[in-house]
Amino acid sequence: MRKKIAFFTIATTLLLFGEIRDKNIAPQNPQPMHIKILDQKELKFKKIDNRPFVEISDLAYDKNTSTLYMISDKGSLFGFATDFNETIEKLTPLYGVKLTKKNGGKLKTTDAEGLALHPTKGLLVSFEKHPTIANFDTNGHLKERYKLPPLLRDIHHYRGRNKGLESLAYHPTYGILTATEFPLKGMPEARQAIYSLNRQVWHFSPQPYKKNGITALEVMKDGNVLVLERAKQGINNFIVTLKKIYLDRCDHSECQSQILAILDSSHGFKIENFEGLAHISGDRFVMISDDSSSLFQKTILVYFEVLPTVK
Q1: How much is the mean pLDDT over the chain?
Q2: What residues are paired with 145 via a beta bridge?
Q3: All residues at 6 or more sequence positions from 38 whose CB lies less than 8 Å from its CB, including other chains
Q4: Pick from 119, 74, 113, 115: nearest CA to 97
Q5: Higher pLDDT, 294 or 246
Q6: Please, what is the end-to-end C-alpha distance for the chain in angstroms?
Q7: How far apart are alpha carbons 154 and 148 in whole angstroms?
Q8: Pick from 289, 288, 287, 285: nearest CA to 305
Q9: List of residues 6+ apart from 173 with CB closer than 8 A
Q10: What angle do CA 179, 181, 187 make, to 5 degrees?
Q11: 281-287 long-range contacts, Cβ below 8 Å, gap at least 24?
């Protein structure tokens, strides 16, 4: 009887929470990169606390609690208990909640794209179709909205309603940083920008691939910025670029950059629609893919280390 109860408990747990599988996205002999992939996981959950676990768009990591937060395009927030060492030793879902107003009411927009951790105020979330950056507690309740710089307030400055505030990070010196997926109207396609809410702007050159856009930002330990660029090259074919932007090496806001890795489907990488980044510790980060609610795409979490470079 005990064996039957134990089996039922395990089966019920799997049914409720899904599973996490090992994954390998790299080809056998990849070109040299300035990153080292430490671990890779495929996350397969239908729902967590009755919230659909789909379309994960960004990550944030709280070092004090070892909690990895995930935000979805559908306006859901998920928390995972973690243990990051040389590999991902623990990744356990804690909860899933819906982003709401202070009183628990429905938000005007739920298209959450960017996620970051503020050192004292909880979580920061950016929304795309109605350009917004707001502060939420870890239970998903709205605390305050931030005033955007004039350039970013009006959706008509963007190249489309689905080409807005895609990424978000918190910098210890410059505060909240954000970037649009594609350059604003009137800007050359070969000139991208990182914006602070204090109206500072840093420009850099994105990759020249078609449909290449910024999908995530994260602050590195030296104060420079790690940028995730993603180019869609047809059905389930992607080029993902990890690039370091040197905020401390700019000439009239034009900043130097360095490519750390290019992960290209056509070169054997089994990559997905990567959209999120989080800093774990030191030179170590995680990035995650958005499954687009498609049976043909997956939610992949990649744990990697940026290797020393000379620039």
Answers
A1: 92
A2: 134
A3: 86, 87, 88, 284, 303, 304, 305
A4: 74
A5: 246
A6: 65
A7: 9
A8: 285
A9: 223
A10: 80
A11: 281/63, 281/84, 282/221, 283/220, 283/221, 283/307, 284/38, 284/84, 285/218, 285/226, 286/59, 286/61, 286/68, 286/84, 287/59, 287/216, 287/228, 287/242
Cβ-contact 135, 146 below 8 angstroms: yes
How much of the chain exceeds pLDDT 90, in percent? 85
pLDDT for residue 236: 78
Distance CA 123, CA 172 (A): 15
Q: What phi and psi values does residue 127 have, to the nearest 5 degrees?
A: -120, 145
In the block, tokens 């500072």 appear at 200
Confidence of residue 17 (pLDDT cuts 50, 70, 90): low
Asked whether 106 and 100 are in contact (CB, 8 A), the reply is yes
Identify the CA nearest to 99 among candidates 91, 108, 90: 108
CB under 8 Å to 254, separation ≥6 — which residues? Answer: 203, 204
Interval 257-276 mean pLDDT = 95
Please list the residues that pair with 257 across neighbouring strands. 245
Q: Which residue has the tokens 């599988």?
A: 21
**Which is nearest to 299 in space by CA: 11, 42, 17, 12?**
42
Please count the other Cβ atoms lying within 10 Å of the Cβ belonging to residue 35. Answer: 18
Model confidence pLDDT, tens digit, residues 274-308: 999 999 999 999 999 999 998 889 999 999 999 99
101 residue type, one letter:
K
Q: Tell whether domain 21-306 is in CATH 3.30.160.
A: no
Q: For residue 266, give the 3-state DSSP assignment.
A: helix
| pTM of structure | 0.93
Within 10 angstroms of residue 49's Cβ, the number of other Cβ atoms is 16
